[in-house]
Amino acid sequence: MDYTFSEFSERVSKDSGIVRLMQDLDVGLSPGSKTFFLGGGNPAIIDEVLDAISEANHDLLDSPEEYARAFGIYDHPAGNVAFREVLADYFSRKFTALIRKENILITNGSQSSFFLLFHLFAGKFQNGIKQVLFPILPEYIGYHDLGLFPDMFTAMEGKVRPLQKHRFVYEIDKEKLMAMLQDHHHEIGLLALSRPSNPTSRVLEKKILDEISTVTKKYSIPVLIDNAYGYPFPGVIFTEGEYEWHENFILSFSLSKLGLPGLRTGIVVAEETVIERLSQMQGIFSLSPGGIGPALVKKIFEANKMDDLCLSHVLPYYREKSKIAQNVIDDLLAKTRYFLHESQGAFFLWLWLPDLKISAEELYKKCAAEGVIIVPGHYFAPKRTWPHLEQCIRISLARPDKELVVGLSLLCKIILENI
Predict the structure, then answer these.
(1) Where exactly are the structural domains of the chain?
(2) For residues 145 and 142, what is the distance between their CA atoms, to the nearest angstrom?
């Protein structure tokens, strides 16, 4: 049949970084694949995490009433009440603030959370259009294609600050940010950032978050902090991770980066008025979030095992992977001009190649032809307008040591052929 599709479908069917990433992920992680998968954001399978979820599953099976509820009953549109109560107690202790179940929403994964949040605070308003502002690029590949309206997103390029040889960090241009908020605050509906940053691993300091809260509060602009890899769980942060809760903060969490992406469970913490509106939106789009992930992970929280799981197993795992990968790159590219973003957390390395003779997209294709999957840098900005990103790639660390080392060795060989 020769169907005609809507403008909306055309917009979300265009060249999308997140869709390509997920397609590569499916190919790279299929049984029997000979691909060296240094691309997508699938977490590693960590034995201790699987053991904890297996134990929780046995506990659930031993409770017929809880088991029946998890599989057979719709939860509240805001998510399982018992799980939200457990989370409220946990977050209250972590942020030394009174957080109640009414401050918490469960979703079908963080991507669903972001879709709801972006369209709650950005788009068409009675007095004009408001946008989501990303204050420091590069930023998460999955944000930029979520808008139902054109030009929903605007962004600021990160300032490159050189560190020791072959290392650098991106910094927020605070003066430019303050000026933008002062002059265009009526056009900004939400400020959003990931911490640690996906893709660079940058962990914005507590002081900077406090400053952002102060200025955005002045203009009644909420701040979304995406903690998919961060504090307090899964806690993949190699620097100081703690920060304070502010009333205009909206916090997003995920069970995926613990190593449980199949549960498709996201968590949002915000003021009650925000959660109430999100709950209404979710009720329309999804009826209610899934109940199996919350039922299982609630057991881990109730047993007070979450922090130990993260600090004793998840964090050390990725810290060691980062060291291994940096050593390989430093060894094989030693005679070239390259820069790694300082590894501050998450499970990625961000590699900048100023002398690359081809685009990051072309490098991606050459690597794919050799069985190595990476993610080209241009996808990590809305509209892909920052030329610097054509010299950058994101490398995932969530693979077994041998695959990581061999894959990186092949990648470095291809890089050396193209600089």
Answers:
(1) 7-48+308-416, 58-305
(2) 7
Token duo for residue 107: 């979703």
Q: How many CA atoms lie within 13 A of 126 on its CB side?
A: 0
Rg (CA), the chain: 21
Q: Taking a C-beta distance cutoff of 8 angstroms, is the pair 389, 354 a contact?
A: no
Averaged confidence pLDDT in the chain: 94
Dig out the tokens for 282 from the structure.
């979710």
Using the CB atoms, write b or e for 106-117: b if 16+ within 10 Å: bbbbbbbbbbbb
User: What pLDDT is recorded for position 103?
Assistant: 99
What's the half-sphere exposure (Cβ side, CA atoms, 13 Å) at 327? 10
Across 231-243, b (16+ Cβ under 10 Å) vs e yields bbbbbbbbeebeb
Fold of 58-305: Aspartate Aminotransferase; domain 2 (3.40.640)
Token look-up 């205009």 returns 248
The answer to whether the beta carbons of residues 389 and 378 sit under 8 Å apart is yes
Give the pLDDT score at 22. 55
- 145-160 pLDDT tens trace: 898 888 899 999 999 9
DSSP sequence for 180-234: HHHHHGGGEEEEEEESS-TTT-----HHHHHHHHHHHHHTT--EEEE-TT-TTTT
pTM of the model: 0.94
**CA gap 254, 5 in Å, rounded:** 33
Q: Are 49 and 259 in contact (CB under 8 A)?
A: yes
Alpha carbons 322 and 318: distance in angstroms, whole number: 6
Share of residues in the chain with pLDDT > 70 (%): 95
**Best CATH choice for the domain 7-48+308-416 from the list 3.40.190.10, 1.10.357.10, 3.90.1150.10, 3.30.450.20:** 3.90.1150.10
Cα(224)–Cα(271) distance, integer angstroms: 12
Tell me which DSSP letter residue 311 carries: I
Structural contact between residues 48 and 36, judged by C-beta atoms closer than 8 angstroms = no
